[in-house]
Specification:
- 45% of the residues lie in helices and 20% in strands.
- It is α/β, with parallel strands linked by helices.
- It has a 3-stranded parallel β-sheet with strand order 4-1-5. Strands 10-7-11 form a 3-stranded antiparallel β-sheet.
- It is globular and about 55 Å long.
- The N terminus is likely disordered.
Length: 293
């Protein structure tokens, strides 16, 4: 009996060692496969293909994401770029309209899968999120009152002026760094921003040049203009993705590159911006470091 028990224990011990060895080998193989195929990300990508992806956008930013007058169909450059990406990757794209300040938190907590709202790639944002390849290149300008440029001739005139913008945008952060006071908005349309500059509730708006150009042209009855002498800070705009979404980023990047090479990005950008924003600007735009502020 004792000998039988000893034999059983010996067999069990051998099996246990074998199981440990097998588990380690399988784990190693799984890790290698995960490394090769991005197993966790493959599941996320498969999930988006099966269930669709929710993309955060504002729906209030001409010409990136907005509703044309008299239409209930969301469109815009960022919107159509994302729709084309979804079509090429076999992902059903649904847009959820969220205020700018809530978009990145919604991505971080998993409420949405991507963000497309003229978001500039910055080093600070890259700490918490991934970005696709840029699908838009631009630079920064400021909107001021038409009659007196809001008293802003150079950057040295900005301290004490009132800036209008979203609380967490890079443009509001920049305005604050330049010494401006901030008036923050939630998810309002361009006419609200521009009329506040016109009537003196705010003095200026820092934002993307192409967006500001179209906004001013679309609302000619509001007495504001883009400052003729202030252009700076070349920007790269991209879709914002979850941190570590390696395979999703790879697929989206490949699609954006394909869209740039086959002319789709140029066609869409000229449709919405009357300019090719899919390539870097030809003129030399000084960076913030070069301005030495």
């Amino acid at each position: 009996m004792k000998r039988s028990l000893m034999t059983l224990f010996a067999i069990a011990f051998v099996l246990l060692l074998a199981a440990c060895g097998t588990s380690g080998e399988e784990s190693s193989g799984s890790e290698e496969q995960s490394g090769e195929n991005s197993g966790e990300e493959q599941s996320l990508f498969d999930e988006l293909q099966e269930e669709g992806a929710t993309v955060a956008t504002s729906g209030t930013l001409i010409a990136a994401t907005y509703y044309p007058e008299g239409s209930d169909e969301l469109t815009g450059y960022d919107v159509e770029v994302m729709r084309e990406i979804g079509e090429r990757l076999d992902i059903d794209i649904t847009f959820e309209e969220i205020g700018v300040d809530g978009m990145l938190p919604a991505l971080k907590n998993g409420r949405v899968d991507m963000v497309a709202n003229d978001f500039e790639i910055t080093e600070e944002r890259k700490r918490d999120f991934a970005f696709s390849e840029p699908y838009k290149y631009s630079f920064t300008s400021i909107i001021v009152r038409e009659d007196d440029l809001s008293g802003i001739e150079t950057f040295e005139d900005i301290p004490g002026k009132i800036h209008g913008g979203g609380a967490t945008t890079t443009h509001s952060q920049l305005a604050e760094e330049l010494g401006a006071e901030l008036k923050t908005y939630n998810n309002v349309t361009n006419d609200v921003y521009l009329r506040d500059v016109e009537n003196g509730r705010t003095d200026f708006i820092i934002n993307d040049y192409y967006l500001q150009k179209l906004a001013v042209e679309a609302l000619p009855d509001i007495d504001v203009q883009i400052h003729p002498d202030i252009k700076f800070n070349e920007a790269k705009v991209a879709a914002v993705l979850p941190k570590g979404a390696d395979e999703l980023k790879q697929k989206v990047d490949e699609t954006i590159t394909e869209m740039r090479e086959d002319g789709t990005l140029k066609e869409l950008s000229e449709k919405f911006y009357n300019a090719d924003v899919s390539q870097p600007p030809e003129e030399n735009i000084p960076s913030m470091d070069e301005l030495d502020l």
